[in-house]
Write a structure and sequence with these properties.
The protein has 284 residues and is α/β, with parallel strands linked by helices. It contains 8 helices and 9 strands. The strands form 4 sheets. The protein has a 3-stranded antiparallel β-sheet with strand order 3-4-7. Helix 1 packs across helix 8 and helix 5 packs across helix 6. The longest helix has 16 residues. The protein is globular and about 60 Å long. The protein binds zinc ion (ZN). The site of zinc ion (ZN) has 5 residues, from loops.
């Protein structure tokens, strides 16, 4: 299989140094493997995605010296490369999960979930779901379209999800403890990140996923989706996270160091890449 990698930024803000380091690593991996790199605009969230950020991310990646062979700006055999234009694929994927008995409609309100005993798990993106609507899996077939409720993937409680990460080494997450039934389609009729990414990586024949280590647990969820859908398995390479002097992950700060800011302060691309190279030995 020829190597195919991807850059998958969300246009919900300006790219910061953490993105730069991860995307540079993805670019280097593709070069090392004489492979193809694609740019995918992950503009699924209609409220938070902005066209000006999409334009800025392309310009910032170019400034950094990163080049790709397929993308929203270049076209390619797997177009469109904007997630907002790939809804039909996500709907097909939702139908396959529904028909396979893997997902169920969850009518819990935000308030129901907030008052349940399950506290958010560490700093993870999605709180543990208490499982109240699990039995509604029998109702799934009554839905022609996913609209109006959250749709959750029923995880196999107690199963250890294991994978070898090419950068972080062997990984293990326990379904039902480290993460639970996760949302694949949102109540506001937007496909969730996990579903869209799995559908796109398979459709675009991605062979290696390079992204930040904050998504290691997401990979466990995505492995369950990949298995349920019978899709080919990519390799995984999760980059170390950039932290500031206080040890806070840059992406979680309210004022992450954007490439625009660094550029305005006179930093050259090579200076940014030198910062990336020093991650781990020196904090920003
Ligand atoms: Zn529920």
């Amino acid at each position: 299989m020829p190597y195919r990698g991807r850059l998958a930024p969300s246009p919900t803000g300006l790219l910061h140094i953490g993105h730069a380091c991860t995307f540079w690593a993805a670019y280097q991996r593709a070069i090392e493997h004489h492979g193809t790199l694609i740019l995918r605009n992950e503009d699924l969230d209609p409220q938070r995605s902005k066209a000006e950020f999409a334009a800025a991310m392309i310009e910032d990646l170019h400034w950094l010296g990163i080049r790709w062979q397929e993308g929203p700006d270049l076209g390619g055999p797997f177009a469109p490369y904007e997630q907002s234009r790939r809804r039909e694929l996500y709907l097909q994927t939702w139908r396959r999960l529904r028909d396979g008995g893997f997902i169920y409609p969850c009518a819990c309100s935000r308030r129901d979930l907030a008052t349940s005993a399950a506290a958010p798990n560490e700093a993870d993106d999605e709180p543990l779901y208490p499982g109240r609507c699990r039995d509604r899996i029998t109702e799934a077939q009554a839905y022609d379209v996913p609209r109006g409720v959250n749709w959750r993937f029923r995880v196999p409680d107690g199963e250890a999800i294991v994978f070898d990460d090419l950068r972080q080494g062997p990984q293990q997450f326990l379904a039902g403890r480290d993460f639970s039934d996760f949302v694949v389609w949102r109540r506001d009729d937007v496909p969730a990140y996990q579903l869209a990414v799995v559908a796109d990586d398979a459709a675009m024949q991605i062979t290696e996923v390079v992204r930040g280590a904050d998504l290691l647990k997401s990979t466990a969820r995505q492995l369950l989706l990949i298995r349920a859908l019978g899709l080919p398995l990519p390799a995984w390479y999760h980059c170390d996270l950039v932290r500031d002097e206080a040890g806070t992950r840059l992406a979680k700060r309210h004022d992450p160091l954007s490439l625009r800011t660094l550029r305005a302060q006179g930093y050259a691309p090579k200076d940014v890449l030198a910062m990336c190279a020093s991650i781990g030995s020196r904090r920003l």
